Fold this sequence. Notes:
Number of helices: 15
Shape: globular
Helix content: over 70%
Amino acid sequence: MSASSLLWVLLFVSIFVGFALEMLWGAFQTLQIVLAMTLLAIKMPANVIVVFRGFSDVINLDVVDKQTLYDFTFGRFVPPEVLESDHTNFRVLTASSSSSSTVETLGYAQSNVTRDILLAVLAVISLLVLTALVLIVKKYWYNKLHPSLKRLFDSVKAFLMWDKILTWTTETYQSMAIGSLHAVKKLTASSFLALKIIVPIEIVYLIVWPALIFSILYRNRSNLTHHRIRESIGSLYMQLNTEKQSCLHFTMFNLYRRLIFALIINFNNFYTFLQLATFTFNGLVLITYIYNWWPMESTLFNVLAVFNESMLVVMGYQMYLFTDFVPDPETRFLFGKTLLWLVYFDIGANLVCLGLVIRERSTRWLKKQFLLLKHKIAMDHIKALRVQQLKDKEIEASILPVM
Length: 403
């Protein structure tokens, strides 16, 4: 099984199983930054590009190919010339003149604006239909459901209507930031009208969304441990210790860090040294933040967060070896192997921690089920004894002599 196939399996298993999903998101966030490093103004060796290309779809959560989905939905009704008339390169991420092929190889191909608008409309309509179905079920059939089915319905409603949407927005924030800021650079008076409308909206979203997350968490700060709140917005503070104030602002700072990284890629691409220095400095600042607040809910998660950020800083320093300081392509190829081993080591460490968490939570669940089973058996035994005592009393009463 390839590494990308393994990541796909882990992603879907974690989504459907539920527990340990936060561990996987942490690993994905680290790998997203690693993949985006190739968009810096450096000369990435071919072996690194080939391996990263296998990771890009799953790490950037490109589950469905946009063109395939468009052909299946709107392609039968919209004339082809409408789509062909839009030649706007909405997400061609060109960090430098030498990296355009790298960008295309990594899967950041051009995205047709007309197609993306139609698919966005389809997503909104699908969400509205889903919301309507949930509300109809809640209004007409909810009270008739068994209590266990009610709990299941509430969990599914929160899972579909809020939790997964919030998870998707935070996990795709970096790729949207990189693409939107690149589109800002390409905006001209002759740009496609839809691009002039969409890009400002996305820039506002990129600036406001992290602050809005902080606002949501702050408003619910006293109820973050409540079951309903955790089901609906729990993805905004996964792994975080709800007893500390860092639970409120860690996600906001983490997203703004990604926005700064996107700015470095798009607007500082002529000064490679400054790009890399800013990137490593941001990593050191975040490590200091984690050491100061120790924001995660367990020591394992805190150590893993420091480890992931430290690995990013080490990889950031290694990026200097892919600049003109090392002009020989063969030497850069050898250093590329070292970078890949660092990536594999980081993935392996996260998988080991994921396995430890799964084992610990599975053991806890099995112990809980065993205690419940023992309690049920004991209660059944007590109930049987009481029934037997009642029968004995009835028998004794029936054989008493009549005075």
